Amino acid sequence: MLFGNATLRIGGKLIHSVTVVMPALNEERNLETAVENAVNLLTPYTSDWEILIFNDGSTDRTGEIADRLAASLPNVFAIHHERSLNLGGVYRAGIARAKKEYLIMLPGDNENGSDTVRRILDRAGEAEIIVPYVVNTGVRPWGRRTLSAAFVALINLLSGCQLRYYNGTVLHKTDRLRSVDFKTNGFGYQAEILVALIRSGSTYLEVGVELAQREKLGSSALRLRNFIQVAKFLTLLFMQRWRFPQKSALVNFR
Fold first, then answer.
1. Rounded to whole angstroms, what are the CA distances from 119 to 23, 126, 145, 215?
2. Domain encompassing residue 57
């Protein structure tokens, strides 16, 4: 049991405090388990954490469950959106409310495996940004793998960055996130943030993680609205590439 603002040393690293941003859209079946798993994941690292549940325009009992969890757990807070702001909009709102040193997004559908999140948290402090990349891409459908590879290749080409993945569960320093005025609300919001921070000189560390096999047949990454937003982001990236030179950054690859 941890008390006060204790900080634990994990593998020689220090985690002082962490904000979890948890988007939840019609997740009445998964939200409580997602919060429970997040608490269990955070406790070995630090006692100074908070979980911000964003009920993102749900039409089921997600909001009611979020309020109950917030009432029963002192470090859990429920924020309600009348209409969905999408992942990027929730992430932006989470940054604005975050009070801790680090920030990470863990979806309310409980998609992220515990081992994946631990591998990311274990590397906190080695760089300003901990960027996961998928090592077992075969668990995803062929179409999703192809689109993801094309997306990464395009961003690397246009930005001058050399990341292996842009849409994972990234661990950021909160103060650095607040320096980025990102515009993307859908698929690609994290890519816009990563490119901006890396081009401004932030250090980063890539960490290989494994994804669990998903039972869902569809993918939110394939929605038309996301394609449109990604196209806008890539166009903006292309324009910025030739207007602003990239600053040098200490880059770590693992």
1. 21, 13, 22, 23
2. 1-110
Residue 150 vs residue 65, higher pLDDT = 65
Nearest alpha carbon to residue 165 among 186, 188, 184: 188
Query: Of 95, 74, 71, which Cα lies nearest the Cα of 23?
Result: 95
Same domain, 25 and 62: yes
Residue with tokens 């990311």, as numbered in its chain:
120
Identify whether residues 56 and 44 lie together within a single domain: yes
Q: Which is nearest to 159 in space by CA: 186, 198, 187, 133?
A: 198
Domain total in the chain: 2
pLDDT in tens, 190-219: 999 999 999 999 999 999 998 766 554 444
pTM above 0.90, yes or no: no
